[in-house]
C-alpha cells in the first residue's frame, strides 16, 4: 500500500511551475565569505550540495532544465583554484556555446588570485546581469618573501579584472584577514595605515564587521592611521569596546583615527587620555578630526590630553554661533540620508517587482512549451 502511494505521488517535473520555482529559491547558494574557518567550510559544503541539486534538476528533463538553468548559472563559485581547472574550462565552453547564459550571472566567487588567468580574455564581455563578486582572502597564504609579492596584490588583480569583465557590476566584496597578513612583521613594522571607509558601505547591514584585533604584539609600531571600523566593531552598543590602551602598541607616537563622531568615540578618547602616561610614554599626537566634534566636549578632551603631554587635534567650532551652524548642518545631512535610504528602498522594491515579472514570464513560457509538446 505504501508502494502504491509512492507510485501515485506526483513527479517533480509534474508540479506547477510556481511550486518548482519556490523549491529552487531554497537551492540558491549562500553568498559571501565567512570569517570563521569552520563556518566558511560549512557554507562551502552546503553550497556544493545545492549546486549539485540544481545540476541534477537541469539534467532531469527539458522542462526542469529550462526552469533550473537560470538558477544554476546565477552564482558562479570556486573559480581560480590552482588544483582544479575543470570548472573553469567547463564554464568557458558553455558560454562559448550559449553566450545568452551570461545574462543569468548575478554573483561570482573566487578563492585565489588566479582569477585573471582563470577567466582571461575569453570572458572579456559585458555580464549584463552581474551584481556582485566575492573574493576570498580570509585564507590567503601569508606573503612569502621570495615571491616578492605585495600582500594586497590579489586585490589589484581582482579590481583590474572587474573593469574588463563586468562593466555593470554594482558591488564588490573583498575580504581579508589583515591581522594574519601582518603577523610576520610584528617585530619590524613601524607605520600602519588601514582605510576601510569606503569598503564598509559594501557590507550588508545585518552583517557584523570584525575589527583588526589587538596590535600590542607590534612592538616597534610607532605610527597608526586607521578608520574607526578597524578599531571598533559596528555592533549595536550591547558589547563594550576594549580600551584603546589594551589594543594599541606601546611604542605608539602618533595615532590618527578617521571616524564619525559618536559617544563611544568620546569615551574612548577620554580613557586614552587617562592611560597615556602609563601605556604610551612616547605618544605625542592624536588626530580625530575627520568629522566635527561637539565644541564643549572637544575642548574638555583637548585639555585632558594636554595634561598628559599629548596634542589632540579635533575639528571643533571656535564660537557658539559656529557650533549652532554645525548642528543645523548635521540635521540637514540626516534628513538627506533618510531621503536617500527611502530612495534605495524604493529601488529595491522595483528590482523585486522586475524579478517577479521575470519569474512569471518563465512560468508562462514553460507552460506554453509543456502545452505544445506534452509531457517529457
Automatic annotation (TrEMBL):
<dbReference type="Pfam" id="PF24969">
    <property type="entry name" value="LRR_15"/>
</dbReference>
<dbReference type="InterPro" id="IPR056867">
    <property type="entry name" value="LRR_15"/>
</dbReference>
<feature type="coiled-coil region">
    <location>
        <begin position="317"/>
        <end position="365"/>
    </location>
</feature>
<feature type="domain" description="Leucine-rich repeat">
    <location>
        <begin position="174"/>
        <end position="286"/>
    </location>
</feature>
<keyword id="KW-0175">Coiled coil</keyword>
<protein>
    <recommendedName>
        <fullName>Leucine-rich repeat domain-containing protein</fullName>
    </recommendedName>
</protein>
